[in-house]
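Predict structure. Chain length: 279.
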Amino acid sequence: MASEHTTFFADSSSMESVESESVALMVTSPPYPMIEMWDEGFGESNPAITEALEAEDGWKAFELMHEIFDDIWAECFRVLSASGFACINIGDATRTIGGEFALYTNRARIDMKMIELGFTPLPSIIWRKQSNAPNKFMGSGTLPAGAYVTHEHEHILIYRKGGKRQFKTPQEKQQRRESAIFWEERNAWFSDMWDSLKGTRQNLGDDVNRKRSAAYLYELPFRIIAMYSVKGETVLDPFMGTGSTHAAALALGRNSIGYEIDPSLKKTIETTMANAVGW
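Prediction complete.
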């Protein structure tokens, strides 16, 4: 099935090229606030973040990072059609700042903003990413009251804009039937715990791109797109990264729009699409 895939190398807080209510699904994995590898990028967007981190004010930095996202989520609400879905892969962060170890709850902060915008939160998915590293246990080990539980999961948050979607016309019903998934996929994918997705090393070339791009598995957007859209519809990723969402949309017969603020990833996105099925 022919499809169109467009990338804008621009800030997704203002998606002027995307019409209101023209997108069926938003699926993305943004940089995770308070994960140290992303400090520089957040600081470039708002120097006050760097100042807060240097002053060891972790919670101020956390809030300022999420304020960058707030405008993007608002734009996603605008471009999503009625009953459209927004799915966000995000992890909470553990970090020691000013001598204090804390969990920075990215999931809770995003939930708060999405509800404020008018999204309806739906049951979410825990992506279990178990580690066998010998140093995964944090704190004092076997001694009571000084250790912390392991942090080995991320969230896939799911929201809907408005009420349950209705397929009314014969064409809409036929399009939905043609987009059906297998029963085995339904049983595995519509579970609140995913532990079969495994991370893979991405070929990002130079060290700069490797540091600036989050690892976003092709299988993750593939599942979400198959679950929450039908063939011929448009999928949006406001943090395109290496192009995994484009590739998954292509394989599933959906159109896609991506926003990526880093133009140095252009060649990587082109390579991802060149390697995708049918491109």
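Summary: The longest strand covers residues 80-90.
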